[in-house]
Amino acid sequence: MDFLTIIQVLDSTIRLSTPLLLACLAGLFSERAGIFDIGLEGKMLAAAFFSAAIAAVTGSVWLGLLAGTVASLVLSGLHGLASITFRGNQLISGVAINFLAAGMTVLVAQDWFQQGGRTPSLIGGGRFSPLTLPFAEALRDVPLLGPIYYELISGHSILVYVAFLCVPATWWVLYRTRFGLRLRAVGENPAAVDTAGVSVVGMRYAAVAICGLLCGIAGAYLATALQAGFVKDMTAGRGYIALAALIFAKWRPWQSMGACLLFGLLQAVALRYQNIQLGDFVIPVQVMDALPYILTVVILAGFVGKAIPPRAGGEPYVKER
Amino acid sequence: MDVMPKWAEVILVPLISLVLAAILSAVVILGIGEDPIAAVEIMVNGALGSTYGWGYTLYYATNFIFTGLAVAVAFHARMFNIGGEGQGMLGGLGVALVCLYVPWPHWTIALVAACAGAALFGAAWAAIPAYLQAKRGSHIVITTIMFNFIAAAVLNYVLVNLMRPAGSMDPATERFPAAVHLPTLHELLLPLGINFSKSAPANVTLLVAVLACVAVWALIWRTRLGFGLRAYGHSETGALYAGISPVRIIMISMLISGGLAGLMAVNSTMGEAERLVLNATEGAGFIGIAVALMGRSHPFGVFLAAILFGFLYQGGAELALWTKIPRELIVVIQALVILFTGALDNMVRMPLERLFLRMRKG
Fold this sequence. Notes:
CATH topology of chain A: ABC transporter involved in vitamin B12 uptake, BtuC
CATH topology of chain B: ABC transporter involved in vitamin B12 uptake, BtuC
Structural class of chain B: mainly alpha
Low-confidence stretches of chain A: none
Distance between the termini of chain A: 63 Å
Number of domains of chain A: 1
CATH class of chain B: Mainly Alpha
Number of helices of chain A: 12
Number of helices of chain B: 15
Oligomer: heterodimer
Helix content of chain B: over 70%
Strand order of the largest sheet of chain A: 1-2
Low-confidence stretches of chain B: none
Number of strands of chain B: 0
Radius of gyration of chain A: 20 Å
Number of strands of chain A: 2
């Protein structure tokens, strides 16, 4: 494997990690506030469809991003309504949202575009185009560092940079602001937050809304930057991989980035090489596909340090029992 | 505290949830420019209007009875088994191994063996998440979701690399021998003078599913184990105090659940396809969640809900055939049913409880 191939695989790692990272941070906000969210997949899918559909109709990718985010926020609101206001089962609500998105996107896509549940291919302003960072062209021929800067760091769409900037932002919000302290507290001990005079319901709705926003960007990235248009079930389990990454990272922002890059690398390698030859031994492509999930189970089993979720996660808060 | 009479709890709440889901589905159909009443007519005619339609409805219902019971048994112990899909896939592998590599003299013996194989493989696939939940506290929902994906990869590998007949491009096993062909309802009912449709896939496994309903009912409400299961589901500390071992309950409830989910493969793989194909479960594992929620985790409720979903599945296929409404409409309906009977249960229940309280007082 030569240097350029490595750069290319890493480049595709960054592209494939981006939706995982956004969804993972989305889940982080929600779960840190005590709302389990297995509906990341559904929210991403809905956002992917609506961003592609609106971008295709209007020709503006920014309107598409807006529409995708709104769609994702609506589903977040539904999740909040079910799990915060009506104290329903958060897991069941998440399952329902995933199916709702899987069905509705195809139904609406068929009704609007009649192309078998897909949107027309996006062209021109309907897509996020790659950004060339300053000096990338000039430094291109510098040995070693040139290609790294030009291929790997420069030349992604703006959402990629947004996603990676979200990591320090999330860290800062969670650990350096009053809002973040309250958010974490609401996921660990909501009764204490309530006693302090802060609205548990309000905090949880805020967290769920941030989750919807980030899932919306993740979905829009899938349909308008990574690919050019929406196809049926295009999230392909990414919401669950993001969930896996979140557990892998033990609900912490920087570690989330590490986990998402790792899972992105696995996807990039599986995409480039079908079966990997190690001497006489062949690793089949299915192993690469299943590896994120296997790793998560191993982590969950506590063989590599224990993953302890936020203490009040999954439980509706009832005032004055 | 029981605010509502039992009939309201068992019949009224699910019925209202169902009506709400139906109304929203109708709105969705209107939204894409079709006529909901005409759509219902097509669905009823297509799914219930002929023995052919009934044959498909009952075939799908058989799958959903198994997966619904699987989720229901786990629900009683307050376990949420989302892994029915993966357990069903592995069950299919069990069925294929039993049918392909043992020369069975007669389908009756093969059916018993295939049931054993399917249940064994399904239970084995549920065993690891169950063990991790019981011993290490890993959340069963996350692990069973992960095991669905791992199951898909395992099945993909086995079908592409190991069990695919030489020279075939299709990732599927070869056809099962004729001796293990399960009689369809057509063959079963002909001696009784009923001419059931020949091409419908409903088969003898339907009877196995009904038996499974009775067995689950007896297990949950008529045995010591079932009592332990329900006790654990209501209160972990209470069960512990009564000398019921949580580890034992978690393991047994999940093994039974996985076994039941695996059994669906007898219907889909042995009864219909007669070979193991990729994605043999077709989402039935997930529909089990909706079925169990709607059936209030009671075997009879699961039976009724499974037939309803069988009707929706077959009706949805007919809709896709005759109108512009794609098959995904049933996924939407399924989501709405899960939403209203599961997550938004309190939205229906709270006003009803208030109503009954007021009626009792005055």
